[in-house]
Specification:
about 140 residues; alpha+beta; Ribosomal Protein S5, domain 2; 5 strands; elongated
Length: about 140
């Protein structure tokens, strides 16, 4: 009889970046686009991605592996999308209401997304709001 292994796939979004995280039982490895999180650059993006682990006990972190695939957007948008995917995966893995309230109290965007998107460009100018200037007076 085959034993089923617990695997959770979850996503996070920020601006135009999308992160898909796969969490499974393991040895505590976290990889972002097949690179270990410890060598991910720039450092500020790496620190943003590690924020969810500040709220989780070390015995949970050392028993799981997280693989994250991130695409689209810039490096900080990707970091925040990965952060959201990690936080959601940890919450789904532990099913802890205390962890959920801890994430929401620290920063709500760890579990709930930010709905702001780029405003579409309109006619008559180079951007969404800017218009051609006239100078005849």
């Amino acid at each position: 009889m085959a034993v089923s292994k617990k695997v959770i796939i979850i996503s996070g979004k920020r601006k135009t970046s999308v992160a898909r995280a796969t969490i499974r039982a393991g040895r505590g490895r976290i990889r972002v686009n097949n690179f270990p999180l410890e060598v991910f650059e720039p450092k500020i993006a790496r620190s943003k991605m590690t924020e969810p682990f500040l709220h989780v006990a070390d015995e949970i972190r050392t028993k799981i592996d997280i693989d994250i695939r991130v695409s689209g957007g810039g490096y900080m948008g990707q970091a925040e999308a990965a952060r959201m995917a990690i936080a959601r995966a940890l919450f789904r893995w532990t099913k802890s209401k205390h962890l959920q309230s801890s994430f929401i109290e620290y920063d709500r965007t760890m579990l709930a997304g930010d709905p702001r998107r780029k405003e579409p460009k309109k006619f008559g100018g180079p951007g969404a709001r800017a218009k051609r200037q006239k100078s005849y007076r």
